[in-house]
Amino acid sequence: MKPNARPRRPQFSSGPCAKRPGWTPAVLDGAVLGRSHRSADGKAKLKEVIDRTRAILRVPAAHRVGIVPGSDTGAVEMTLWSLLGSRGVDVLAWENFGREWVKDIVGQLPLEDARVLEADYGGLPDLGEVDCNRDVVFVWNGTTSGVAVPDGDWIATDRKGLTICDATSAAFALPLPWEKLDAVAFSWQKVLGGEGGHGMLVLGPRAVERLECHVPDWPLPKIFRLTAGGRLNEAIFAGETINTPSMLCVEDVLDALAWAEKVGGLDGLVARTRANGAAIADWVEATPWVDYLAAAPETRSPTSVCLGFTEPWFAELSADERTAVPRQIAALLADENVAFDIAGHREAPPVLRIWAGATVDREDIEALMPWLDWAYGEVKASYSSAA
Question: Which listed residue, 146, 314, 348, 383, has the most CB atoms within 10 A of its CB?
Fold first, then answer.
């Protein structure tokens, strides 16, 4: 039977993600519109985003924090094209976005001395095989597989290479070991629930040194250039963006950052995320038809939770039918205004994917779980009757 209670907010998309609780368009009223982003007021807003981001994430003073074009993808591409090439690179891939970085490194740059350490969806590569005397490129929290690295212990403190980390589903949801990370990329539309199109780039001192002593063998388009005259372009990290940002999006993320401060900063955001993950874990433990795609408990993403189907009838379906099942469940729940956009990524195995980041309320997660049981039962019954 259909449950009686619905989530108050049915936004469980893994990107763009739910706005913070209580958000309304009125939070944008203070935006600097119809003005140059290089005006004093425009630059002040951009610098405020940088400063608040640094404070909440506890980024060390020696690291630069900047706003860059193209969301997380743009920030990662910028680091790959600007930093790589002076030594060999290990690139880790266990889900869609890591595999995209493989395509860039092996197929587009291309780098001859590149090792690809891979794992199937649900697993991690052997982190013990990573050579930190080479550059290392990896995703911290695999949004499309629900698999995250458990910690940064595998990264050598005395490394010779750089660590380049795509942290878009981890920043603001997990504490990051900044001393182990040389270049970190993320975006506003994930854990903060901001709008898309803008990326954040954090560069440690070792990354800055590489930029100033290494000139890539390939041309760099303007949108990727982090140096001027052989030195780091410090203006980028003081609010002077490479291209024109949306000041509406800037105002929106400032509201999200202010909310993050009110709920306890990083500690509060992590606690909210973990509480959401615990609610899902309790339901999974009590539910026989579902399990995590992540094979090892310590690697389960706390934000982008991917859940597969375990009952024999599902395994007996054709490949196309298995692919259709999560989409059918997601469509039923969207029609009921219970949950939007919870089918897995198109490149992933057939799973449900539930965003459980800090802007989602635990009460809504708890209200969603009975609806998953209902929708699964409806879809299963439709296949049984067809047979």
Answer: 146
For 260, the 3-state DSSP assignment is helix
Pairing of strands 183-187, 163-166: parallel
Strand boundaries in the chain, DSSP class E: 64-69, 89-93, 114-118, 135-139, 141-142, 147-148, 163-166, 183-187, 198-203, 227-228, 231-232, 290-292, 304-309, 352-355
16 upstream amide cis, omega within 30 of 0: yes
CA 337 to chain CA mean position, Å: 25
pLDDT digits (tens, 9 = 90+) for 158-194: 999 999 999 999 999 999 999 999 999 999 999 999 9
**327 CB burial (10 A radius; 0-12, 13-18, 19+):** middle
User: CATH for 264-386?
Assistant: 3.90.1150.10
What residue segments make up the domains of the chain, in order of their start?
Answer: 35-260, 264-386
327-340 tens-digit pLDDT: 999 999 999 999 99
Cβ-based neighbours of 186, under 8 Å, separated by 6 or more: 72, 75, 166, 167, 168, 170, 171, 172, 199, 200
Which residues are bridge partners to 308 per DSSP? Answer: 291
Residue 191 · residue 172 · CB < 8 Å: yes
Q: Which fold has domain 35-260?
A: Aspartate Aminotransferase; domain 2 (3.40.640)
Identity of the amino acid at 34: G
